């Protein structure tokens, strides 16, 4: 699923796939609260922590995963993101 599809699912009231129903419903409840919410797409290269975690859990089972900040590489990428270091996206 690409990011545009994910944003459309979250902001649409149309029928969604059953396997995403509870997750989407929870996101929609958060979006409907009385606060300002903006959903935008950021390439994984722009958020190294997310990229690191996505790569790490890619082959893991679905469910809750708890990571220590001291986990190999994670603290480095947290600092990388805090400092706002960016790199050109190669397509």
Automatic annotation (TrEMBL):
It comes from the Eukaryota. Transmembrane segments: none annotated. Residues 2-56 form the RNase H type-1 domain. GO terms for molecular function: nucleic acid binding; RNA-DNA hybrid ribonuclease activity. This is RNase H type-1 domain-containing protein. It comes from Linum tenue.
